[in-house]
Amino acid sequence: MPAEWQLRRKIVDIARRVHAQGFVAATDGNISARAMGDRMFITPSGTCLGELNPADLLYLDFERRVLAGRGRPSSELALHIEVYHQRPDVQAVIHAHPPVTNAFSFAGLSLADPVIPEVVVAFGAIPTTEYATPSSEEGPMVIRGLIRRHDVLILQRHGSLTVGADLSDAYHKLEKLEHAARTLLAARQLGSVRELSPDELDRLATVAEKLGYGRSRLIPPSSP
Ligand SMILES: [Zn+2]
């Protein structure tokens, strides 16, 4: 099977999992993957991720020119292209609307505070961007500074953005983010939640470094 078709099948496989897990509803969310030679595949606008077929994907260059495929590319195309410009290491991008993660954002609560040790090690802080009108040209601007240092962002009042070395990596980050949000929600319902101490954070930073993660990601961002 040609590499291009394998990549198409993998996007569809991940899209179905994103929908099946309830990380999106109806035609929400979008997924892209970097292809050879500054090209990319992205999911089409107005199509349910749970009902996608490999032939439905659009093949584009980074100047937003559609080279193959019918229909319009996802309305968040500019957001995806911004990630690929900022992060040559990133091969896949997933934007979803995970409900509990989003609930924290709508309630004005941050997920940046360090509470769950393994999340701190894997992600560092989880920043929330400034608000941008969905599908607008503001989207790339609000992620620009943060995506250089973070693989997991919360788009204020909108959803998640997870990026990875491949599609599975970006998907696992989404799953881990929503799981962390669900766990924190339960903890808050049971009582007050204590943040990790600076000492504990320092020891986790050493673990993160040993695993090859950058220490700088542990510093909570100044934005909300
Ligand atoms: Zn969205």
Topology, element by element:
Blueprint lengths: L2 H18 L9 E6 L3 E4 L15 E4 L4 E3 L8 H10 L5 E5 L2 H8 L10 H7 L14 H10 L4 E4 L3 E6 L2 H24 L7 H13 L14
Antiparallel strand pairs: 1-2, 1-5, 2-3, 3-4, 5-7, 6-7
Helix pairs in contact: 2-5, 3-6, 4-7
Zinc ion (ZN) binds next to loops.
Supply the key terms:
alpha+beta, seven-stranded antiparallel beta sheet, binds zinc ion, single chain, L-fuculose-1-phosphate Aldolase, 224 residues
General description of the model:
- This protein has about 220 residues and is an alpha+beta fold.
- The protein has a single domain, classed as L-fuculose-1-phosphate Aldolase (3-Layer(aba) Sandwich), CATH 3.40.225.
- Helix content is about 40%, strand content about 15%.
- It has seven helices and seven strands, in the order αββββαβαααββαα.
- It has a seven-stranded antiparallel beta sheet with strand order 4-3-2-1-5-7-6, sandwiched between helices.
- The protein is globular, with a radius of gyration of 17 Å.
